[in-house]
Each structure stands twice: as structure tokens, then as C-alpha cells.
Amino acid sequence: MLGLRLYMAQRLSAMVMIPLTLGHIAVMIYAVQDGLSAAEILGRTKGSVVWFVFYGLFVVAVAMHASIGLRVIVHETLGLKGRALEIFMWLAGLLLLAMGLRALFAVTLP
Amino acid sequence: MPFHHSRIETVLLASTQEMDVSVWRGDATGGGLEHFKVPAQDSQTILDVVAWIQQYADPTLSYRYACRVGMCGSCAMMVNGVPRWTCRTHVKKVLKDNAITIAPLRNLPVIKDLAADMDPFFDKWVAAGGVHHPTKSRDDAIETLDPATPARVETDTGIECINCSVCFAACDTVANNPDFLGPAALQRAWTIYLDPKDADPNAVLDAVSGKGGCHNCHSQGSCTLHCPNELNPMKAIAGLKRATAASFFKGGR
Amino acid sequence: MIRPHRSHPLWIAYLLHRLSGLGLALFLPAHFYMLALALDQPDKLDQFLRFADNPLVKIAEFGLVFLLAVHVFGGLRLLALEFLPWSPRQKTFAASAVGAAFLVAGTFLLQAV
């Protein structure tokens, strides 16, 4: 169901997320030592421009990437197509973007 | 003796192993498996088994074959869930618990029993743009091409396709995405795109960038795994993805 | 059960990539919801993080890190397949992606417990 544009959006968002994902996993491995706490996490991220850009980019890219991926899965397993498929993809993308940005602001705004 | 045998068969069968062969019978409206007992022989292909059933057990069985020596691809069927050329599939290779299941090729409509309708396969072959666009007329000198150039070597790896549809039947993306043009059609498009004698490679890129184009391939690799001619459609499709992506950045398609 | 024509390494790599992507896509809204609690209900977030100290939760987190790692390493293999010159070693890369994902997720689990 993918033409060239959606395919390129999928691949480009994937490429953007490679360093972000590896960075995120590294942070998780570091942060999980000796338990997690809200104070420890927010102490790192609140007011930080670096984390804002890092996770901001991550949220936008993942909203695009995941919604296109879900579109393919829903088309190939459930047979959804046409307008309904387009609406599904956009809804999924907007939901992830909205929730992701909310989480972003929650942890990075001072 | 529950099945149809001549007297000679009866005598021979007394000392012969019999296999349990299930064959899909039916047409476009539906069908199911029918069961036959087929005598095992030392050198026997699945095509031999099908022919035996039609000749000795049930003359109403419909199936296709032509060369019976692995050149034409007409005898392709699903054998124990795997698409194969039945004339080149030795029974001993696929027999499991003394049983075999034979069905028409997947992902194609059925005409009758083991004969599938090849029209959708060829429609997609044409739709993928695998048609040569000439640059010269018969009045021009014949262009000499070096067979050793990398592009020609790459093209040559895809031109032996005999349109047997085994890759088409093996592909789950063909099964799940009705628009997907499929491995064979896209491989042919790739060979046309690479051909320096072709006038319009961009037409090929357009043809493979649509709704059912190369970008729907998930690189499962069943096509390459099962191709009886050992071709590599997955690699060809990756080539098309590279070419279309490059074109995306250069020409802004 | 997986049909016979599907039980080969590259098909399994495809399945793993699809399932890990699906799993991550379904996990993300919950993840974003938890983090957003820092805005107006920070003690609820802390409560959840304390609950997450439970070893069973850590094993679930290991699973999530594995899904993310296998999806990104498998994705690297696909990007290489599609944009770099062809390599015949696709099965090796697929297996390496799974191995690397186990290593990474295992490291996480060891740090977590």
C-alpha cells in the first residue's frame, strides 16, 4: 500500500531515529542502575535544551514511523484500505504526536 | 480394495508401498482435499504421482504440465505447502509420514483442481513496466554491448525468468496485499531499467513506484529461496528501491 | 503453526521486525502517559517507578529493550539491504541483529537488578 512518498518518509524517519534509539537505550542502561525515581529522571531532563531537542525529534520521527508501520500492518492483516486506511494512519500519527509532545513537555520544561 | 485398480495393478500392488496423497479438487467457487492411495516407485516425481492419479484413479483430475523436464515451469503446484515444479520434485524429498498434499499454486485464482489462472500474474508483469523501449530502429547499426560490464552482469542475473509463478505463490506480501506486483514482475522491470539500450528507464521507475510497487516488498526472501532457476528477485527489488530513492532526491518525484 | 514455506531465517526476521514494531507502537502511548504524569501528578509517577522496582517488571522491561534493540538492529540490516550494494550475507546479518539485541537487553537487565 506504500507508494514512494510514504516509503521515503518511513525510511528517513528510521534513519533519524538510529542515533536517537541507540542514545535512548544507553541512557536507559545508565539510568536504571540503583533504581529509578522521578527526581533522578527529571533532574536530568528538566530545563535541558539538549534533551528537549533529542526527545522532540524522537517524538516527531516515531509518530511518523509508527503510524506508517501500523498502516502497513492493518492493511495486510485486516484488509483496511482507501479512505479508512488513510484516516487510521493519520489518527494513529496524531495520537502518538500529541501524547509524545505532552510527555516531552512534562519532562523537559523547567 | 476400495480404489480403482486393473488386475495387473492389483498384483503389483500386493508387493508395493502405497502413499497417502491428498489432492485439492474444486474450482473458483470452492473445493477441498480428496485422498488417494498411490503406489510408490523408486524414481518418482510429484508430477508422476499426479499423472498416475489421473490415469488410474480419477480421470476427472485437471492439472497442467508440458516439458516435464524442468524447463517450462507449467507444472508448478503447492506440494506440502511449498510451491515447486512438480516434474523436478522427487517424491522422496517431500514425503512426510508416507503422505503428500498437492494443491494449486497459491495467490492465483483456481480454474479447476490443480490448474491455476495465470492471468493476474501476467497482468502484473505488464503493469510493472517490464517492456523494452527501443532506442534504435531496424535501419540503425546493431549496438554492441560488453557482457562483462557490471550493469550487464547484474541484468543477466534476472533474465532467465520463465514466468512459472513459484515466487509469486511463495510471497506472503502478494497474499496480503492485492495490489503488490510481485517478485517476478519487479525483477523483470529491474532488468529493463538496467538495460543501456532502453530509452525510458524513468517509465520503469514510475511503474514500480505506485500503490503496488516495489516499496511494498518486506524482503521476506521466500521468492529467492524457492525460485527453481535460482534467481534473486529480492535483490532486484532492492535495486529498484535504490533507484527510486535516488530519483526521489534528484528529480523530486 | 508456521506453514512450511515460511520457516526460513529471513522470513522469521521479517516476522520479528513486524511484531517488535507492533509491540513498540502499542507500548508507546502507555509510556508517554506515564511520563506525562510528571506534569500534574508527580507522586503517581514515583509510585509507578517504585512498583517498577519489582523484578518481574524488570524482566518485562528487558523484553521491551529487546524489542527496541531488535527492531533498530533489524532495521539497520534492511536499510543496508535497500540502500547499500547487495550483500549475500543477509542471514548472517539477521542473526547478528538478534544476537546484538540480546546482548544489549541483557546488559540492561544486569544493570537493573
Percent of residues in helices of chain B: 25-40%
Residue fraction in strands of chain A = under 5%
Q: Which secondary-structure class do the elements of chain B indicate?
A: alpha+beta
Distance between the termini of chain A: 43 Å
**Overall pLDDT confidence of chain B:** 91
Helix content of chain A: over 70%
How many strand units of chain A? 0
Mean pLDDT of chain A: 93
The number of E-state strands of chain B comes to 7
Q: Largest contact between protein chains?
A: A-C, 36 and 37 residues
Outline the low-pLDDT stretches of chain A.
none
Structure annotation, total helices of chain A:
4
| Radius of gyration from the alpha-carbon trace of chain B, in angstroms | 22 Å
Quaternary structure annotation: heterotrimer
H-E order of chain B: HEEHEEHEEEHHHHHHHH
Number of helices of chain B: 11
Largest sheet of chain B: 5 strands, mixed
CATH class of chain A: Mainly Alpha
Structure description:
The complex is a heterotrimer of chains A (110), B (253) and C (113). Helix content of chain A is 85%, strand content 0%. Chain A is mainly α. In chain A, helix 1 packs across helix 3 (49-78) and helix 3 (49-78) runs antiparallel to helix 4. Chain B has 11 helices and 7 strands. Chain B has helices spanning 7-13, 46-57, 91-94, 119-127, 150-156, 166-170, 172-176, 183-194, 201-207, 222-226, 233-251; strands spanning 18-27, 30-39, 76-79, 82-85, 99-103, 110-112, 115-116. By secondary structure, chain C is an all-alpha fold. Chain C has a domain at 8-86: Up-down Bundle (3 helical TM bundles of succinate and fumarate reductases), CATH 1.20.1300. Helices cover 83% and strands 0% of the residues of chain C. In chain C, helix 1 crosses helix 2 (42-51), helix 1 (9-40) packs across helix 3 (55-83) and helix 3 packs antiparallel against helix 4. The model of chain C has no long low-confidence stretch (mean pLDDT 90). Chains in contact: A-B, A-C, B-C. At the B-C interface, helix 10 and helix 11 of B face helix 1 and helix 3 of C.
List the helices and strands and how they pair.
The complex is a heterotrimer of chains A (110), B (253) and C (113).
Chain A (H helix, E strand, L loop, with lengths): L3 H28 L6 H8 L3 H30 L3 H27 L2
Chain B lengths: L6 H7 L4 E10 L2 E10 L6 H12 L18 E4 L2 E4 L5 H4 L4 E5 L6 E3 L2 E2 L2 H9 L22 H7 L9 H5 L1 H5 L6 H12 L6 H7 L14 H5 L6 H19 L2
Parallel strand pairs in B: 1-5
Antiparallel strand pairs in B: 1-2, 3-4, 3-5, 6-7
Chain C lengths: L8 H32 L1 H10 L3 H29 L6 H23 L1
Helix pairs in contact in C: 1-2, 1-3, 3-4
